[in-house]
């Protein structure tokens, strides 16, 4: 028997708190379709949200999982990372099932989006939390008469105890765009030990990635699996760039690592009536 989940408030904004009967939970804001929190059953918070983040309409939240659409970063004429992360989304459904909790949110074009991006679209963000897993699915449908191209990402900010204790596995052999050095490179080693000021777009990511943390008091293995997305962004601003971010405390670059399911290098083209679906499956092992 499924039970509807009522709307609640988080930091003054409309939110849905998904609670699975097994104790797993996740919170998503209608503002930006922004997943803010994920606590696997028996686990702790997996996402970083900056204590200095604005929770204000029209502004992106710093942390959690911003939805990047229809432009990545400054690779086009739109605002950085597009408009989806700053728009109010609609709640389609939210319910607790026998062994999970689900929510679906929707964003469609309006007069303001058509002014900057003249296309009719429907985005649907579906979340499912259960046990040790969170699934985030993003679907886009072209509702207009003309084809359009878009880039997209689920810009996940994973909370870490300290950058020195974190590593990422599964990138060996992949080619990537190093946005700091502005050069195309290849990942030679299996283990990526992130240092500050890391900004890379790995291409053709087919296998699951593993975020590992190994410290005196920490031992964590988080599996990150993408479907439908071609690229994976690994980003950490480092000390200097973090100090320049108004909405992140200076030392907090040590407390998160972004690993983003993305399609950037080859934007997705949808003809009239066509749809695309991408998924990011997160499992705490
Ligand atoms: O500050 P923003 O707009 O949220 O962007 C954060 C970062 O997002 C990452 O996805 C980009 O690769 C970085 O270049 C960027 O700095």
UniProtKB/TrEMBL annotation:
The active site is at residues 155, 260. Pfam families: Aldose_epim. SUPFAM superfamilies: Galactose mutarotase-like. GO terms for cellular component: cytoplasm. Keywords: Isomerase. GO terms for molecular function: carbohydrate binding; glucose-6-phosphate 1-epimerase activity. It is an enzyme of class 5 (isomerase). It comes from the Bacteria. Gene3D superfamilies: 2.70.98.10. This is Putative glucose-6-phosphate 1-epimerase. Its EC number is 5.1.3.15. It comes from Roseateles oligotrophus. Belongs to the glucose-6-phosphate 1-epimerase family. It catalyses: alpha-D-glucose 6-phosphate = beta-D-glucose 6-phosphate. One of its GO terms (biological process) is carbohydrate metabolic process. The keyword Calcium does not apply.
